[in-house]
Automatic annotation (TrEMBL):
Its cofactor is [4Fe-4S] cluster. The lineage of its organism: Bacteria, Bacillati, Actinomycetota, Actinomycetes, Micrococcales. It comes from Herbiconiux oxytropis. It is an enzyme of class 2 (transferase). Transmembrane segments: none annotated. The chain holds residues 73 to 434 of 434 of the full protein. This is Quinolinate synthase. Catalyzes the condensation of iminoaspartate with dihydroxyacetone phosphate to form quinolinate.
Length: 362
């Protein structure tokens, strides 16, 4: 039962004390978030993991790429645990390393590898945080960089200084929305089409490109529509519509503002009491904000509940299981279940790409 599960999780956490830290992503359900020592977005949580060097284990209630990032940044002795190994991210899965390497080879054949007169290389690979460790490592190895939805424009600026073009993974919407806001014309942002047999990209469009977009998307954020925004404006005059930049371009264009989770939280926190917000992002976060800020009216643009289905795979039952395993069952030894380990051959270049992001300045 729920009460039983609650008692088990609390008891295991109490026994483990500082040996374990539980991280909870903003998109996790409340039944899980209530046990988190830190709550945040993927980048904030990776940083939170660094503040507890004494913890033996980091239990990451989020999705696979987030646990990988934590393992890349954590101390080698620290075990990063994903309570349910089936908690992946469909967007991250859309940029598998084999397809990326094929695309890179095809583009290198077109662009060559020589820098131009001002020393800019032909292409800089940029990947959103929401990607596999392998892809982060690929970017690190090939002069590229990682970005989050908070710093995507700063990172693109960094890349434009060093490269004639950018190949942006995996989220086409974040790439398109960010580059468009920076003044890159849409016709210079072709989407990579590897299916040569079905047409592919013309060499001309690739030569003229400034940003080549990968074909990934977030199945949660792509659901938001302009019609939902129109409906919100009609029913709530004065409403402020804020959406995440993983939403399609027409939705971002129709909103009052677009920004990362951090941006959305800060906009709500700074608003005068009695403000009304329609938010285009994951429902668990929106409902938590609505509860935290009762002085405002806050609702999700999509009234058909739309949680991230893979985030939802972290059930409190799995959390109880990994914590009790760490304690040791029936007086038995402590066991680390569901450890996420990124091979150092991948972690080292991935760290390079992450460090480039941290030192990129606006
Ligand atoms: O859409 C997501 O999964 C986001 C925004 C994750 C994160 O925390 O960066
Ligand atoms: Fe991936 Fe979207 Fe879920 Fe985030 S909300 S974990 S991008 S599927």
């Amino acid at each position: 039962s729920k009460a039983e599960l609650d008692a088990r999780i609390r008891a295991a956490k109490a026994t483990l004390g500082d040996r374990v830290v539980v991280l909870g992503h903003f998109y996790q359900r409340d039944e899980v978030v209530q046990y988190a020592d830190f709550v945040g977005d993927s980048f904030q949580l990776a940083n939170a993991a660094l503040t507890v060097p004494e913890a033996e284990a980091i239990v990451f209630c989020g999705v696979h790429f987030m646990a990988e990032t934590a393992d890349i940044l954590a101390r080698p002795q620290q075990a990063v645990i994903l309570p349910n190994l089936a908690a992946g991210c469909s967007m991250a899965d859309m940029a598998d390393i084999d397809s990326v390497e094929e695309a890179w080879a095809e583009l290198s054949a077109i662009y060559g590898t020589e820098p131009d007169a001002s020393g800019r290389v032909p292409v800089i690979p940029v990947t959103y945080m929401n990607s596999s460790a392998a892809l982060k490592g690929f970017c690190g190895q090939n002069g590229g960089i990682v970005c989050t939805s908070s710093n995507a424009a700063t990172v693109l600026e960094w890349a434009f200084e060093r490269g004639q073009r950018v190949l942006f993974f995996p989220d086409q919407h974040l790439g398109r929305n960010t580059a468009k806001a920076m003044g890159v014309p849409l016709e210079r942002m072709p989407m990579w089409n590897p299916r040569k047999a079905l047409g592919g990209n013309s060499e001309e469009s690739l030569l003229d490109a400034q940003v080549i977009l990968w074909h990934g998307f977030c199945s949660v954020h792509k659901r938001f529509t302009v019609a939902q925004i129109e409906k919100a404006r009609a029913s709530h005059p004065g409403v402020q519509v804020i959406v995440h930049p993983e939403c399609p371009m027409p939705v971002v264009d129709a909103a009052d503002a677009a920004g990362s989770t951090d941006f959305i939280v800060k906009a709500i926190a700074a608003a005068p009491a009695g403000s009304t917000f329609a938010i285009g992002t994951e429902i668990n976060l929106v409902q938590r904000l609505a509860n935290e800020y009762p002085q405002h009216t806050i609702f999700c643009l999509d009234d058909v509940i739309c949680p991230c289905s893979t985030m939802y795979r972290i059930h409190p039952g799995y959390l109880a299981w990994v914590l009790e395993s760490l304690v040791g069952v029936d007086g038995g030894p402590s066991v680390v279940q569901n450890r996420i380990v990124v091979d150092e051959a991948v972690a080292a270049p991935a760290r390079v790409a992450l460090e480039r992001m941290l030192s990129a300045r606006p």
